[in-house]
Amino acid sequence: MDIVVFGAGSLGSLLGGVLAREHDVTLVGRDPHVSAVRDAGLRVEGAFEATTTPDATTDGTDLSGDVALVTVKAFDTAEAASALATGDFDAVCSLQNGMGNEETLADALDCEILAGTATCGAIRQAPGVVECTGRGEIVVGAADGGDSPIAESLAAAFDAVGFDCEAVADMPRRLWAKLAVNAGINAVTALARVDNGALLSGDANDLARAAARETARVARARDVSLSNREAVARVEAVAEGTATNTSSMRQDVEAERRTEVDAINGYVVDAACEARRELDLDVPVNRTLTSLLRAWEDGAGVRES
Ligand SMILES: NC(=O)C1=CN([C@@H]2O[C@H](COP(=O)(O)OP(=O)(O)OC[C@H]3O[C@@H](n4cnc5c(N)ncnc54)[C@H](OP(=O)(O)O)[C@@H]3O)[C@@H](O)[C@H]2O)C=CC1
Ligand SMILES: CC(C)(CO)C(=O)C(=O)O
User: Where is the Ketopantoate reductase C-terminal domain (predicted)?
Assistant: First the structure.
């Protein structure tokens, strides 16, 4: 397959580096990472081991391929979509966390929009080097649900290089289930500065479960079938499966970067407000986590108004 990975940070470099074992991959990223990949290839360490030589560029315009994977942070999706719109793809697939990315891509692009979720753990350690801290699972499918031959081909492309990837027909529900996982894990691990596994017990466990239950309630208010029990079970299964991971939001806070809180806990708060008039829906845990993260972003000077 001919694959563009737009956003060669932690996740994008892991996926692109491993996909380049078998496929034609172009990474879109920034220097000095892009120059390092061009000079010496991309080294993947940890749960995957590979050194590959994908193409790499800092210019994401006028590219083409079978599929473009979007792996920028949620607040960069609009810019990625504008750049991808100058190119030519059969499909563009968001593998980001948070909600709203697929709508942003669909507004800008003419091709098929796929959605995906990834529970891999990735940390870019140095220019040209990414560590995989957990292989996790990848799920892809049509963003609006239903069967998609190109999603099937993409899943096969991931499988061929060693990822555990499935194409599914119920992506909208899967995105809510992943939102519950991220609402439960990301903010709590970022604020408490703990690995994902710390959420399996104690106060952190109570918080993560409560954030996930609130997310499931909001999902049901939107006619998405996600029970509290499933949301909590998914949070705990991912926390256990990625116990030694530094979540992407904790990585952001530790590096003093803007977080994706608006697209995760903040999205749950906004969606609850929309549904609230009819259903008296309150989400105090997600509201508190969102406010704390936004206060931290303001204090660190990384939040854009
Ligand atoms: N890391 C992980 O383990 C996991 C991450 N995710 C999700 O995947 C997404 C990506 O996360 P992650 O990889 O950690 O994030 P990173 O910030 O490490 O990667 C995103 C990269 O995209 C680059 N970028 C953004 N806009 C452009 C542009 N216009 N042109 C070129 N490069 C651009 C950024 O550069 P710069 O920083 O200079 O702007 C950055 O290097 C997020 O939604 C995250 O929640 C999901 C599962 C696991
Ligand atoms: C699955 C999980 C929680 C893995 O750390 C993740 O998606 C993230 O870190 O953003």
Answer: 173-295
Q: Do 97 and 218 belong to one domain?
A: no
Ligand sitting nearest the alpha carbon of 97: 1
Tokens of 146: 């239903």
Report how many helices (DSSP H) and strands (DSSP E) the chain contains, helices first: 11, 12
pLDDT in tens, 39-89: 999 999 999 999 999 999 999 999 999 999 999 999 999 999 999 999 999
Query: With a 6 A CB cut-off, is 257 part of the ligand 1 pocket?
Result: no
Does ligand 1 come within 6 angstroms of the Cβ of 74? yes
Tell me the CA–centroid distance for residue 269 and ligand 2, in Å: 20
Q: What is the mean pLDDT of the chain?
A: 96
Q: What global pTM score does this model have?
A: 0.96
Q: How buried is 295 (Cβ within 10 angstroms: 0-12 exposed, 13-18 middle, 19+ buried)?
A: exposed
d(CA 13, ligand 1 centre) in Å: 9
- Looking at residue 231, its amino acid is A
Q: For 142, which DSSP code? A: E
CA of 62 to the centre of ligand 2 (A): 31
Q: Which residues are catalytic?
A: 178
Q: Give the Cα separation of 270 and 202 in Å (integer).
A: 28
Mark whether 141 and 229 lie in a shared domain.
no
Structure letter (DSSP) for residue 191: H
The model's pLDDT over 224-236, given as tens digits with 9 standing for 90+, comes to: 999 999 999 999 9
Domain extent for 55: 2-169
247 lines ligand 2 (CB under 6 A): yes
Domain membership of residue 305 (yes or no) is no
